[in-house]
Inverse folding.
């Protein structure tokens, strides 16, 4: 089974109230996280430097 379907992973996600975005594997289209997750992540990280 894929790792995101493993019991230990699904239990962890449920326990921590983490939502999983469903997307088809190897899709040529943009993934949902390209529209929702990354723009929200970009804002608080703007101006940060990583090494």
């Amino acid at each position: 089974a894929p790792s995101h379907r493993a019991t230990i992973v699904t239990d962890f996600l449920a326990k921590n109230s983490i939502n999983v975005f469903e997307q088809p594997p190897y899709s040529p289209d943009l993934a949902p996280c390209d529209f929702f997750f990354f723009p929200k992540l970009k804002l608080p990280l703007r101006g940060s430097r990583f090494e």
Q: What stands out?
A: The first helix runs from residue 7 to 15. The chain has a mean pLDDT of 78. Residues 3-45 form one domain.
